[in-house]
Amino acid sequence: MAERGLEPAPAAVAALPPEVRAQLAELELELSEGDITQKGYEKKRSKLLSPYIPQTQETDSAVQKDHRNQTPAPSAPQTSAPSKYHRTRSGGARDERYRSDIHTEAVQAALAKHKEQKMALPMPTKRRSTFVQSPADACTPPDTSSASEDEGSLRRQAALSAVLQQSLQNAESWINRSIQGSSTSSSASSTLSHGEVKGTSGSLADVFANTRIENFSAPPDVTTTTSSSSSSSSIRPANIDLPPSGIVKGMHKGSNRSSLMDTADGVPVNSRVSTKIQQLLNTLKRPKRPPLKEFFVDDSEEIVEGIPQPDPNQPKPEGRQMTPVKGEPLGVICNWPPALESALQRWGTTQAKCPCLTALDVTGKPVYTLTYGKLWSRSLKLAYTLLNKLGTKNEPVLKPGDRVALVYPNNDPVMFMVAFHGCLLAEVIPVPIEVPLTRKDAGGQQIGFLLGSCGIALALTSEVCLKGLPKTQNGEIVQFKGWPRLKWVVTDSKYLSKPPKDWQPHISPAGTEPAYIEYKTSKEGSVMGVTVSRLAMLSHCQALSQACNYSEGETVVNVLDFKKDAGLWHGMFANVMNKMHTISVPYSVMKTCPLSWVQRVHAHKAKVALVKCRDLHWAMMAHRDQRDVSLSSLRMLIVTDGANPWSVSSCDAFLSLFQSHGLKPEAICPCATSAEAMTVAIRRPGVPGAPLPGRAILSMNGLSYGVIRVNTEDKNSALTVQDVGHVMPGGMMCIVKPDGPPQLCKTDEIGEICVSSRTGGMMYFGLAGVTKNTFEVIPVNSAGSPVGDVPFIRSGLLGFVGPGSLVFVVGKMDGLLMVSGRRHNADDIVATGLAVESIKTVYRGRIAVFSVSVFYDERIVVVAEQRPDASEEDSFQWMSRVLQAIDSIHQVGVYCLALVPANTLPKTPLGGIHISQTKQLFLEGSLHPCNILMCPHTCVTNLPKPRQKQPGVGPASVMVGNLVAGKRIAQAAGRDLGQIEENDLVRKHQFLAEILQWRAQATPDHVLFMLLNAKGTTVCTASCLQLHKRAERIAAVLGDKGHLNAGDNVVLLYPPGIELIAAFYGCLYAGCIPVTVRPPHAQNLTATLPTVRMIVDVSKAACILTTQTLMRLLRSREAAAAVDVKTWPTIIDTDDLPRKRLPQLYKPPTPEMLAYLDFSVSTTGMLTGVKTRGINLSCIRTCVVVAEERPRIALQQSFSKLFKDIGLSPRAVSTTFGSRVNVAICLQGTSGPDPTTVYVDLKSLRHDRVRLVERGAPQSLLLSESGKILPGVKVVIVNPETKGPVGDSHLGEIWVNSPHTASGYYTIYDSETLQADHFNTRLSFGDAAQTLWARTGYLGFVRRTELTAATGERHDALYVVGALDETLELRGLRYHPIDIETSVSRVHRSIAECAVFTWTNLLVVVVELCGSEQEALDLVPLVTNVVLEEHYLIVGVVVVVDPGVIPINSRGEKQRMHLRDSFLADQLDPIYVAYNM
User: Fold this and answer.
1) What interhelical angle do 613-622 and 647-658 show, nearest 10?
2) E-assigned strands of 694-737?
3) 852-871: buried (b, 16+ CB within 10 Å) or exposed (e) per residue?
4) Nearest CA-CA partner of 589 in 434, 844, 361, 911
5) Contact of 1279 with 1305, CB cutoff 8 Å
6) Going by DSSP bridges, is the β-strand pair 1252-1253/1237-1241 parallel, antiparallel, or unpaired?
7) CA within 20 to 30 Å of 69's CA: 38, 353, 544, 819, which one?
């Protein structure tokens, strides 16, 4: 409340007219329920208050805010005490129904402990634009009830204008202060999230700069489970204090306060990113909880997926086996009716005037009372109509035993009661469901499935409800998603036919035939129908009547949903059986007037009230308005969710507040219910003055192992539970193990409560298999033999039977989270989350907890709705504290904690969170969080052990012919080139330049090249003669203008085309060495021009040949900003050449002379030039296509498929492989056999092994052969470390020997050793050790196939796996980036491209987002999950960027190292950076 800007003083509020105060309270509620947007709320509110507020109050809200920040937090609520309306829940008050004061104290204590050992969590980086809602709809979905869409409230305008004014005066201070006042919530403060750590960052950066430079040892491997300390961490001074709780203050882009630091690679790094990564590394180096026994070693061929070994010290149950507990016998009362319908008939005919049910209007005033006479006559009319008036006499629409849906809103109990009893009288089976609100309600499809499986074709509803259902354009009710086609029948009295005098319903004594079906949603979200027989319905009523001691004429106030569970059993059945009067308080009334149920109890002197904890809580919040209510008439206050962990504190708080209003302590009766077992246990109304039952204070740690231990150790991790009374009369209860066979638990063990009695459900409708497991359980003893022959029903509740046969419930099977063999209860974790001061961050206490299965274990996910006005700082603070609290109280790590905008989680019909739907959205990446924290490093303790390298095959291995250790050496060769035939033609024309001259004479008009434009039309062509003539002119210009000599290097700067080819031959004619360079990009000179400059400098070019346009670009102003334009060598444009020709064309004296230079920036960021000798002509024919490393099969297949219809033969599409040292190694020609494909095991590949698996095997990778090895080419596969040959089907580096191998690197700064190593290297042993090989730098393997090559020998296939210098070494394993990237790209439709690299042993994944920016955070958990599942790696940082940010070179290879440098230098402008902890 204190957050309101336009806030009348408390006294002023008290002085407001009562009707204005009432309207204000209603507004508050609408806002808190999400029925109105923040904007609409403020607009209506300021309208209401404007006549009463003195103008002076509209001061600059920035000033108020400073005030507010100084007031101590606890006193904020009391400032508004005088007004009762201030006490209603303010928009973000945490749902106090979860509140346990005991628990809150425990959480605060646990957090205090953590404060001493503060850990600085790196705050995620967000782009300003992301998640900026326009102030109008800050986080709240547009809502029909909000006011019209004009200007926002005065408060917001004032706040924004103040902020803008401030920001203009002083940008710095504005950034460093979070503006919570403005509701551009996450955006306003997201500048803060860009981190330079205040004060410490400079020194931190310097220290790291030094350690990095002095010390090249490997950085600590934080990815293993042991806490490693390596030398680099020992150098670091220990006393650097990272900022408390990771709040990282921000700065403007482009500000240069950050000190630069160098990484080991000498890349200057902006300290913003690196400080965060360093913080991340520091958090990861904290000792973890002891890891579980690592349960497999990835080295074995097959991974054994086992369960982690249990901890030997874990508590084990020690009691004896429990014996089933019996309830008191069900009394035999002579006047109990033989069926529920008989009771209705009896009261309807003999006590027609007695009130049966009272409905309330929206304000909580009684609006209509249904008497027993009316209920009977209307139910009769309906029964008659259903059976006789819907079809024809011969073909009735409904027959007894058919199922019908009842669709009635929660505020219309009267219509529902008539419909329900009408169905019972007609012997049709009612299936009550919620009113569908939209075509795609959360869980609506599953309801449709239930209706379909029950064979329902008819829905009963009221006229008002029918009018409110969503309609199509032509007025028909829409077809709800997944629903069968329904016929809607309106049951209002005026549409029903009166039965003839002689018509009587058929009422037989209750038997096992179905009476009604109650729906229930399972943990996975599927909806099942629990079928209840007429006998069970009757017996349950009798048991409830006996347990609650109901008597005729009593008044019951019911706040529960009357369509199911206790609301139905007490309010619709037991009341009819005992002729009681129920007052039904609908949920909508509770929203506007939380005290209404207390007022009804007072007004009607009710004896019994049926409530949930939340109703107790709401009444406490609002009780100030009613000083004079009395609850002394209540003999039973039945709390139906007494099984929740927070019910005990709700009951205590309610009692302490209302005891002065006459509430008796013994009247509070918690009970436990479930759809299958119905009422499991209920506390009987106590005797005045008798001592109240005790509490159980249990150890959370014990509970997680399923044993009951009184908490002795840490008082923070205790759970206090109250009993839910005794077993039902006539019932029997036992506790069985929750998983596996239904073995009876020991007395000190927690298990699933099972109930045997006639009063439970009989089956899940239409699901025989699941039914057997739930409704026909025969418990067994430890030996496995059955105990008795009475079938029990599983209740879905977890608990135990305590002293005095009292039943205690500690959780639900649906909320059970099994993590690493320990059980946690979702509700307990929710309670812990709420106990961390959630009021600033969490919207209305809406938190969902569920588990997802990732990497052989369950992982806990916490999703909460964030208040619209919560600042980034507060949210991040809350998230990090929740992680700590859950860790210390439950001793379990949270895998993912996400905050989503308020009101965006899917809702259940009564407004709770639809957990299974939320989980579904999370897993498919459509939750759209606005904040997310992933902690895989703390949770995932079952990674395989890091690999220790095994020594490879050494020279000592047995060499027998071509065998290495019993395997054929992996080598392959193309056919021999053969001797050049001794004819004149070949001897005369040995070089390319000579061939062109000869062809210009022999075939002058043969067109060699054609240049097409984007439309596919020919722009220009070059015949042999034209090309020769143009080359001559260029050669002449080189001599005249450039004054060049033979052997000089000339840079050719042309876009691909005929100009480039002519210039290339011109250089050959002049005896110069062409260096082809990609022209710079006019739009991106700063990035592309330095590369050109570097090649020009490194190649020592004497001149540059280019076009006029490019020449102007090289000398432009823009170019001058990127490089020094004054020092270009001579630039010659070849657009208008003089018609001159060289007197004599150059002829190389030997074929060994240099022909051309090819420069390329390698994907690891190294510039290399490759010299190529005068290429021998007999080979050049086949050198057609430039290589791709690993053939991309999917791309190839889809390409072939796409163009198949135009007559493209699939054989024509082929791959080739070449590398910088040898442009053409293999090519898929048309003569050889078809390319073979193999599936290899990814796990083995990481160990540098090749293991072939079947198609469809898990973790398999499809590889295609790279083509037929070209003539004259020899290939051998070598271990890159030992340089020894490896065996067939083993992975190693591909080495090549051929006449057209490049002759070496061109000036890589005096690197003779590098040259020899890459171009002229020998095997360390083996009989091929005399051959000189060139290393391609690619990993691959050779495999002999069954196919026959053209020579008649068996065909050796070469498979390329990937570039050696691109591979990532993590956890001792070798990963190919493309494999990880393929997995990531598959995971979400909005990922356009992906690249991975490592930094200080952290895996960084960069994804390009092609969807809307609100999807950015959805990608973080999906990326983390898939890399963990498929590659056994924990992602350290996930960076989400715009499309096109990942740099790609001219050959289509990703420049991962450029990307890494840009990321570390903070030049990516990412949408979001998530640091996984």
Assistant:
1) 40
2) 695-699, 718-722, 726-727, 732-736
3) eebbbbbbbbbbbbbbbbbb
4) 361
5) no
6) antiparallel
7) 38
406 in Cβ contact with 460 (< 8 Å): yes
Phi (first) and psi of residue 768, to 5 degrees: -65, -40
For residue 733, the one-letter residue type is: M
Taking the C-alpha atoms of residue 973 and residue 381, their distance in angstroms, rounded to an integer, is 94
pLDDT tens across 768-803, in order? 888 999 999 999 998 999 998 899 999 999 999 999
Measured distance CA(445)–CA(480) in Å, rounded:
8
By C-alpha distance, which of 898, 897, 877, 933 is closest to 247? 877
Query: Helices in 778-838 by DSSP H: which ranges?
Result: 826-835
User: Nearest Cα to 1214, choosing from 1178, 1239, 1187?
Assistant: 1187
**Residue 1322: both structure tokens together:** 């020998």
CA 1100: distance to chain centroid? Answer: 53
Please work out, in degrees rounded to the nearest 5, the angle formed at the alpha carbon of residue 841 by the alpha carbons of 838 and 845: 55
pLDDT at 840: 82
8 Å CB contact between 870 and 190: no
Check whether 225 has a pLDDT greater than 80. no
Distance CA 1296, CA 1221 (A): 9
Across 32-143, the runs of DSSP E, i.e. the strands, are 125-126
Give the three-state DSSP class for 389.
coil
Whole-number pLDDT of residue 706: 92
> CA-based angle 537:541:542, to the nearest 5?
120
Determine which helix (DSSP H) or strand (DSSP E) holds 916, and give its type and residue range: helix 915-924
CA–CA separation, 2 and 24 (whole Å): 15
Which of helix, strand or coil describes residue 951? coil
Helix 372-388 and helix 340-350, axial crossing angle in degrees, nearest 10: 120
Integer Cα distance of 504 and 390 in angstroms: 18
Q: How confident is the model at residue 925 (pLDDT cuts 50, 70, 90)?
A: very high
Cα 1407 versus chain centre, distance: 15
Is residue 914 classed as helix, strand or coil in its secondary structure?
coil
**Nearest-angstrom CA–CA distance, 28 and 43:** 12
Q: Which amino acid is at 1221?
A: V
- The conformation of residue 894, written as its DSSP 8-state character, comes to E
Please state, in angstroms and rounded to a whole number, the distance separating the CA atoms of residues 99 and 847.
13
C-alpha–C-alpha distance, residues 1040 and 1042, integer Å: 6
| CA 952 distance to own-chain centroid | 41
Q: Is 1306 helix (H, G, I), strand (E, B) or coil?
A: coil
At 1087, is the secondary structure helix, strand, or coil?
A: helix
Residue type at position 547: A
Q: How many residues are listed for the chain in this entry?
A: 1477
Number of H helices, E strands in the chain: 44, 61
One-letter-per-residue 3-state SS of 253-272: CCCCCCCEEECCCCCEEEHH
Categorize the per-residue pLDDT at 838 as very low, low, confident or very high, splitting at 50, 70 and 90. confident
pLDDT value at residue 714: 64
Assign 1192 a pLDDT band (cuts: 50, 70, 90). low
Helix, strand, or coil (residue 800): strand
In order, the DSSP letters of 405-452 are EEE--TT-HHHHHHHHHHHHHHT-EEEEEPPP-STT-TTHHHHHHHHH
Nearest to 1299 by CA among 1278, 1281, 1272: 1272
Q: Which DSSP category does 478 fall into? A: P
Q: For residue 118, which of 243, 282, 236, 240 has the smallest C-alpha distance?
A: 243
For residue 1000, the number of C-alpha atoms closer than 13 Å in the C-beta half-sphere is 16
280 contacts 1402 by C-beta, under 8 angstroms: yes
Q: Specify the pLDDT at position 129.
A: 56
Residues 6+ apart with CB under 8 A from 1144: none
CA dihedral 1304, 1308, 1314, 1315 (to 10 degrees): 20
Between CA 351 and CA 1380 the distance in angstroms is: 76
